[in-house]
Amino acid sequence: MAVTEKSILTRLYVVTAFMFLFAIAVLFKLVNIQFVQGDKYKALAMERTEKMFTIAPNRGNLYSDDGSLLATSVSRYTIRFDAVTVSDENFRENIVPLSNSLSKMLGKPSSHYQKLLRKAKVNKNRYALIARNLDYSEYITVKDFPLFNKGPYKGGLIIEQKTVREHPLGKIAERSVGYENVDDEGYYSGVGLERAYGEYLRGVQGKRLKQKIAKGQWKPIGWENIVEPKDGYDLVSTIDINIQDIAHHALLGQLEHYKADHGCVIVMETETGEVKAISNLGRTEAGKYYERLNYAIGESSEPGSTFKLMSLVAALEDKVIDTSTVIDTEKGRWKIYDRIVKDSKWGGYGKISAGHAFEVSSNTAFAKMIHNNYKNDPEKYVNRLMRMNLNKKLDLPIKGEGEPVIRFPGDKGWSGISLAWMSHGYEVSMTPLQVLTFYNAIANDGEMVKPRLIKEVKEWDQTIQKFDKEVINEAVCSKETAAKVQELLKNVVEKKYGTGHGLYSPNFSMAGKTGTAQKNYVSKDPDKLKYISSFAGYFPAENPKYSCIVVIHEPDKSVGYYGADVSGPVFKSVAQKVYATSPLVDEVDMEKMKDQRLDKSYQRYYAEAQKNYKQVPNVKGMSGMDAISILENLGIEVEVRGNGKVKRQSVSQGTNIKDTKKITLELS
Predict the structure, then answer these.
(1) In this model, does residue 592 exceed pLDDT 60?
(2) Which candidate, 406, 320, 308, 395, places its Cα nearest to that of 358?
(3) Within 10 Å of residue 140's Cβ, how many Cβ atoms?
(4) Are residues 160 and 174 in the same domain?
(5) Helix, strand, coil percent content, the chain, rounded in steps of 5
(6) Whether residue 149 is found in the same domain as residue 105
(7) Which of 96, 442, 475, 550 allows an S-S link to 446, with CB 3.0 to 4.6 Å?
(8) Digit-coded pLDDT (tens) for 368-422
(9) Cis before residue 540, ω within 30 degrees of 0?
């Protein structure tokens, strides 16, 4: 028995010792966790229960040149209910009036919301969905509802905000307006102006602390953000929605008529390079058209006969010919090595001047003109083209500009027929906007300006950055050469023999060049042969205000494919309607400013008028931004409602400015 007692005592001592050592180990671990690794575990616990979330700022607005919204950010709100934080007493007192308020605003019966809220309370749901996609005014209203007005803790109100991008004017210039996305790693992608000027539009992210609740959901803590987001800047584009609408529908109608694959149209202000309209339409399998790709900027292809202008300018500048130089068109067929250059007119044009060859668009005349005059020194011709910037990109901020191709002797693809083929727009490649930029330079007496899609960056009414006219090449040619080809471009439309005479109208003048380029011409299968129809030029012919190019790919050959027939009517429609809608005249009852004509932005007129104003001016029809600028410069406080142009003004024209402290403008 003694042995047994001793054995028991030994075991007891062992167990006690073990427990003592275990207690020491536990104590050591507790000390280690508390003092050595405490910060680590506190941070880990915090990370698992509380987390900092980023808040996307409101993206800046994108406006047309008259203040109409092309793209804007709109806040949308989701309302949820935390049933756990609400006391039973508060819940009983407010469930019926809260449900009645929700029913009145959201349209469902009060019983629906009572059932939803009671179920959340019973199930201790901390994240019950009440409503989605509310606008700001609805969100403000919900915050004042019974129970919810007690806040996130006593009232259980959870607010989630997200920002969505909307295009108020629908599909207008959709591809050029574009979009911008950001991935989880913070890398941005997208197209158009939204991507090109994303650094201005994005703003600065805010921060919001949230607490983890059931089922991996996160609930905002408190009302306020840790860091408030900073909204992005606004962009004022050069797009004129009136001209854009005209161009879009003119192009769409022609694409549908000719069952073409795709096409584009660009309208640019001659003096400044401001792009007033840019439309890109591609065909779906169902035969519908939409803004699929930015063909105007991104698609580089052989321009065909519109390139004859570049060849003629080069030859005139190098003085290897004059417009009166006679060229034999060889009955419309001219063989060079093993290839034959053909005119569209069977039998050719006989012996004609270089100027007349341009007006009738003779391929044989241009092939002979360039080949014969440059064959011993082909570098001279190519160098002249390069001095006219035809081998350089426009360096646009919009991503995806197509690469221009002007081969140099010795380059891959250069051969003995290259000069002849380049002369009339083959073995070269340019985008529609690159071609238009050259035509615009000719309309500008030789000055080449960079196309521009943005006027300025703004924060409210303050200009952050202004984008002014940028000259690419002060003189792509001499003024003498420019004057000569200007006359020929005018004759293309006005003379009965000109390839564009079918577009002639006695009511307004145009100047331009037709182009019909073949696609897949190396194939011997006639079914694979496609066409690119184009027309490039400017209007009015005498004092150009706008330049324009229309390019249509793969029209149905059974309907037609010549540039004058397919693309030319779009050009004419744009020119005609812009002529009809451009004149803007306003009269102000002031002795020094009577019957003065306003330019489109009204700025030039009012800069002078402000010196003399004693009465409230008429700002109806102006863009909101221009009207605000004018009135505030006169010392009048302005309240604005809506977007776009001024539809109504609360103080009528002629009211004494001294008696006017505030005016409300209603915009369309």
Answers:
(1) no
(2) 308
(3) 11
(4) no
(5) 40, 25, 35
(6) yes
(7) 475
(8) 999 999 999 999 999 999 999 999 999 999 989 999 999 999 999 999 999 999 9
(9) yes
